[in-house]
Task: structure prediction
Amino acid sequence: MSAKDSNPATPGEKLPRLPEDVQRLVEERTAELARINEQLRKDLEESQRANKSFAEALERSRQLGLETTALVKASRAILDSKSFEEAARIIFDCCEEVTGATSGYVTLLAKDGSRNDVLFLDSGGRPCEVDPDLPAHVRGLREVVCRTGRTAYENNFPASEWVEFIPPGHMTLDNVMFAPLRLEGKTVGLFGVANKPGGFTDRDARVAEAFGELAAVALRNSLTLQALQESENRYRSLVEAISEWVWEVDPGGALTYCSPQIQDLLGHPAEDALGKTPLDFMSEGEAQRVSGPFRDTLQSQEPFAGFEAVFLHRDGQRVVLETGGVPIRDADGDYRGFRCVSRDTTQRTRAEQREAALQSQLAHMGRLTTMGELASGLAHELNQPLAAIAMFAAVAAHEAKADGEQGRQKLIEACDDIGEQARRAGQLIHRMRQFVKKIAPRRTALNLRSVVDEILPLVQNDFRHAGIPLNIDVDRALPMIWADKLQVEQVLLNLVRNGLEAMQRTDFADHQLSVAAKAGEGRLEIAVRDTGDGIPKDRFHDLFGTFYTTKPEGMGMGLAISRSIVEAHGGYIWAAPNSDRGTTFTFTLPTADKDREDASGTDGLHRG
Amino acid sequence: MQAVPTVFIVDDDPAVTKAAGQLAEVIGFKSQVFNSAAGFLDAYRPNGPACLVLDLRMPGMSGIELQQALLNTGKTLPIVVMTGHADTRLVVKAMQLGAVGCLEKPFPVEDFCKVVREAVQQSEEAWRNRSHGS
Result:
């Protein structure tokens, strides 16, 4: 078949005419074929377009997936990372991966905004001789991004206006993109990526901006954390530097925080205390006492202060802690327990207790001295039956010589009387022995000033309350006295208190009480001078009472005791009216040097 | 014949007054005992030789106070004081007020007899002088 055969419809060439209907059919068929052809071509085109958009969609979806995964990973990094550097590195890597950049860095703006500090740099294998530790100036495209806070990229960097800012030795840059790290409306750093094959797109810019946002969140977290840490450090160092013990309990009373002072105060390591309650560090009795108020306070959620409780040190020592506390509330205002500060008032309390002990000792001493008097009275009473016995015996001897029934009766009666008095004497001796056991005084060499100083705390408050000055003029350098300390304290207390009472009975504004001492021959003379209402002249002689008189409470008793103490020490006590107003009581006590040798022989009855 | 002198005994202790009273009788005197100074002061009417054996420490009116009261009323009689304590100051005071003797309990019976006899003797002399004078 020739070429002509294959082209039967060449125009202009006379073809054998087909019958008209055939001709029409052929034309129709040809047109149909052309239509079909056209349709096929259209279909093909359509299909190709669909294919392409499908592939594009696929790619977009892949990209989106990549972006999503990267964003999730970056978000996760914020939560998991311990530092901003760590989080920023992960976020940056994600950004690089998603945008397809091959190098980049993260910088933070210096506080004054003048320069960037490069946090880290990924040169992507390209040589770079610029020391990343050197601060980078904020200029060029970075300056634009910093200023506008918008992501920007430049795909033809070598030809751009920015290239002039590149320092010598800097790695080559084909294209660059910067995303800002923004905190509170200010740009605080930059995400820089570069050298993406094919250049960056708007889409990359949006993605980079999202990563920049994430990095900013990470930065804010890190700054907050840092501030929190600093604040906590500050709080902790404060808490640990003070002498008070700081502790926290949950609403149930269990310790949730315990400052290290507990080690010093109570001898327990702080970590051992956690989970226990403060009551666990008290004696059973004290815990019982405190448990009520403790529970009530936890329940009330009201601040409290000045609560005193006796804790037990690990070594068994009693430690008095004064505690104040405030309820702890979390950010939502929910009650979380109590924060408390306890301070050691043991010293103070010990002083108070010492005072109380001294008080009670003195009171006891008062009783003892009274008993001493009683014992000495008993000795006197013993003389009574002895005297009677001697006389009854003489009577009996006389009657024994007499004759007759009357004499016999008298003899029997006298003997009965003797027996009766002997029994009485025996009972007295028995009672006396019991007293004597309790009253042996102990004399030592004492510094009078020290004795005075010991009683001062017992009376100072009363004087302060009364607004009356108490002047002590007792030289520490005076000779030592040879005396029973408690007894001397008792005498001083009696006199000082009497003086105060005498002054409180009158209304003068210029009251004052003075205690003065001076040395005499082998003795000290101690004068207690008041400006009180004085003592009526006719009362002076029986001021100090006697054993047999019924002594009134208070002054009479105190003075009687004082006298018996002073005299037992071989001293004297007397009272004299002052020339102006009030009374001066004076007593003497032997000095240690003189009296020590013979003192041992003067205690008489007390030696039992 | 002269009346038998009376020994007054004043002590708050009944055993002592009873014994001293009997002893005084044994040595030939009459006796009258009181257990309080005030009781004696009320009852005493000088009507012949007598002496007073007086305890110094007593509840209520003391021995010294009784001495003074007697001096004040002029009803004097020789006084022997007794004391339970070696209470020097009281004894000195009593002596200053004119006591003629002092007995420290418990005393030997002989001492009692001796000082009581001496006191009574003084009283007898005083009564003799008084009657001679009258």
